[in-house]
Specification:
6-stranded mixed β-sheet, about 120 residues, alpha/beta, globular, 5 helices
């Protein structure tokens, strides 16, 4: 408990965000939650390796209620809007180290970072 936060996020519209460049070396190391629908997770934009699919709504509620609030969580979606909402929801529940992945899968793919289906 009380461990130091790895990322120093920037705040955009009250949402703490990190860039894909900041996150790429932590893929597979950090908790990454993709809040899109299952068809999007395996669809055209694919998903980031090691991402766990936890859609917004009851699934996210259940995940957050059973997860360690001291864990650093990165949320991602298609463009960053839904994951921004997930970040705010998690922070309101005491997850003070949660961050949004800026630009979502659109920017991740634009940067040509690894994805999997």
């Amino acid at each position: 408990m009380g461990s130091k936060q790895i990322f120093s996020p920037i705040i955009v519209d009250d949402v703490p965000e990190i860039t894909p460049e900041m996150f790429k070396s932590y893929v597979g190391i950090m908790t990454l939650i993709d809040v899109r629908r299952p068809d999007e997770f395996d669809g055209e934009l694919s998903h980031i390796p090691s991402a766990k699919l936890v859609t917004l709504g009851p699934d996210l509620d259940a995940f957050l209620n059973g997860h360690d609030k001291d864990d650093e969580i990165v949320f991602v979606c298609r463009s960053g809007a839904r994951s921004g909402r997930a970040t705010l929801q998690s922070r309101s529940m005491g997850f003070l180290k949660s961050v949004n992945l800026q630009g979502g899968m659109l920017l991740w793919n634009e940067r040509k970072y690894p994805v999997e289906r």
